[in-house]
Specification:
Elements lengths: L13 E5 L6 E6 L12 H15 L4 E6 L2 E5 L15
Antiparallel strand pairs: 1-4, 2-3
Bound molecules: zinc ion (ZN).
């Protein structure tokens, strides 16, 4: 008895598109204790959280970050918008 596994690999092209109905989110992170603010659409609110945290704890190192949500779409699938022909031109 053989223990054989077979797999077929196919390389596909994908693209990312920002979800325009979801705004960029911002948050602050304390580098001393890893406490993190809630994420918000307002970058000033994230900075204010850092200042309040500094006042309460005396912690002085912070990181401000922003993130955005994306959808991944396969662009060369048979159902995709940019299907390539296998016939020579
Ligand atoms: Zn802290």
């Amino acid at each position: 008895m053989t223990n054989t596994a077979r797999a077929r690999y196919r390389f596909a092209q994908w693209t990312l598109r920002a979800i325009t109905t979801m705004a960029v989110r911002h948050f602050g992170l304390c580098l001393s204790c890893d406490e993190r603010s809630t994420d918000t659409t307002d970058p000033d609110t994230a900075q204010l959280w850092c200042l309040k945290h500094a006042g309460l704890t005396g912690h002085t190192g912070y990181e401000l970050s922003a993130f955005q949500h994306f959808n991944a779409t396969m662009t060369d699938s048979p159902a995709g918008p940019t299907r390539r022909s296998s016939r020579p031109l």
